[in-house]
Design a protein that fits this description.
single chain; alpha/beta; five-stranded parallel sheet; two-stranded antiparallel sheet; disordered N terminus
Length: 214
């Protein structure tokens, strides 16, 4: 038997059970609704990144590559060589990796790296990439910047940089991953990476909406 705190009278056990079941049912519906929203959001996120395409013959003041794979760096250097931008920042490079190491790996000329390539060693994560990129953009007074990173990493990267620098015009240049259902079914790690990136993107969006740093 339970007790009504206002009257001192006891509740019948059956009523307590009904109230508990009602509460659990509401909580269950709420959890199912959150799962449904999460799944729908993930499908929208997946469709967005899967449809991303690199722009043809982009032109900007500069180019930024966020490290995470040498394919990104190769593309950034190729864009620089093609004249897509005047200067290149490679952000988030391991402190043990020198400019000469990257030059040799990308088979670039010494002159290109000496004149037009900056290596950023400070960033440890995407938020760090954003801070490093924003400082570099301000230092050179660039207005239009091509951003090179993987397609699944692009939404969060754009959100992080735009949070710090809302003045610059960022042109996404995604490195395309195979995101067909067949390719994902053959590579579960890719699905795990995309799901993890989706969760991180939600956390970034939540922080920006609420102002609460997680």
């Amino acid at each position: 038997m339970g007790e009504d705190m206002r009257t001192g009278r006891e509740f019948p056990r059956g009523r307590l059970i009904r109230v508990a079941r009602y509460f659990l049912r509401i909580v269950g519906f709420g959890i199912l609704a959150l799962i449904g929203l999460f799944a729908c959001g993930f499908l929208i996120f997946f469709g967005h990144i899967a449809s991303m395409k690199a722009p043809v013959n982009p032109k900007a003041d500069a180019i930024v590559v966020l490290t995470g794979g040498y394919q990104r760096v190769d593309l950034g250097v190729q864009l620089l060589e093609s004249g897509a931008g005047r200067r290149l920042l490679i952000s988030g490079v391991n402190p043990a990796t020198t400019s000469n190491h990257i030059r040799l790996l990308t088979k670039s000329t010494t002159g290109l790296f000496e004149c037009c390539v900056d290596i950023g060693h400070d960033a440890l994560d995407t938020a760090g990439n954003a801070s490093e990129t924003a400082r570099w953009i301000r230092a050179h007074n660039f207005r239009t910047v091509i951003l090179v990173t993987n397609n699944y990493h692009m939404p969060r990267s754009l959100a992080e940089i735009r949070r710090i620098d809302d003045r610059s015009d960022l042109i996404p240049y995604p490195v395309e991953e195979g995101l067909s259902l067949t390719e994902i079914s053959q590579n579960p790690m890719l699905l795990r990476t995309i799901a993890s990136e989706y969760v991180k993107f939600l956390l970034v969006q939540s922080r920006d909406w609420t102002g609460i740093t997680l």
